[in-house]
């Protein structure tokens, strides 16, 4: 014999039930929040239980159908329909799910509230919603402080869900410093180091630039780094020295976001990582923990794309970047500059 549905009342954006619901719903399934006078359910919890015929809901003197309740709830709570889809999916995968910051707390299989800490904080967003990076960073910092993992649940136009794990990244490498080079000439948008031995040293030990015959051709970000570190001397075609600030000015005329890109390049190099262009992957950089320029087949570990601190993600673009990185066995990392340079890694997650 099936259980008789419990009766709840919709008031002030919550569904309230009597004390008997605590034993039936909370103690057996960890639904809702126990109060002195009974149990309080959020709208997504109530919708889930209503759909499973475990609950009846009264509002304004009427018993609501699932349709009526769903329409009301979506008018009370912005984004309700997306959160319901994710809540239902996670529950049906066997997880205990409770409301939390930013949207839900998810407990590991075999664990539950009161016994084990939550494993994930879940942030739900629609595929069509532009997502400023600050909206990711805030829950990410909270989850890190609480030693939880952050799950980004993206609901697409057909209500399918793609899950991502978002986490702070601290990339580091083991590449030794290269020896100083010699004099190089600034051309239009790149630089040539003329001395063959100096060219070979920089390329072999730091994997800087590309050897064109016996000479090393450097990108502008590589040149800025080597010049700032005193490892090359830079002149123009007339032999006039080009200081770092002049190089930065000229490079910024060629590439609008050059200074932002250079801050990230410099930070990665200072972390003993090898940094090369990520153009073929649609990112700013591909990054190696270490590399031997004489050997072929070394794979980079990271794809790093630099964004502004006020950057807004468009989720289809984010999805393509993460999928591409996964397909070539790399980690997709977004770098932004706050006080220093911060790194956020995004990867596909299968709950």
Automatic annotation (TrEMBL):
EC number assigned by the record: 4.6.1.16
Gene3D superfamilies: 3.40.1350.10, 3.40.1350.150, tRNA intron endonuclease, N-terminal domain
SUPFAM superfamilies named in the record: tRNA-intron endonuclease catalytic domain-like, tRNA-intron endonuclease N-terminal domain-like
Protein name: tRNA-splicing endonuclease
Catalysis performed (reactions): pretRNA = a 3'-half-tRNA molecule with a 5'-OH end + a 5'-half-tRNA molecule with a 2',3'-cyclic phosphate end + an intron with a 2',3'-cyclic phosphate and a 5'-hydroxyl terminus
One protein family per Pfam: tRNA_int_endo_N
Gene it is expressed from: endA
Bilayer-spanning residue ranges: none
Keywords: Endonuclease, Hydrolase, Lyase, Nuclease, tRNA processing
Lineage: Archaea, Methanobacteriati, Methanobacteriota, Stenosarchaea group, Methanomicrobia
Stretches assigned to the tRNA intron endonuclease N-terminal domain: 8-70, 183-248
A single BP term in Gene Ontology: tRNA splicing, via endonucleolytic cleavage and ligation
Keyword Transferase belongs to the record: no
Residues of the active site: 288, 299, 330
Enzyme class: lyase
Domain tRNA intron endonuclease catalytic stretches: 80-163, 258-340
Record carries keyword Zinc: no
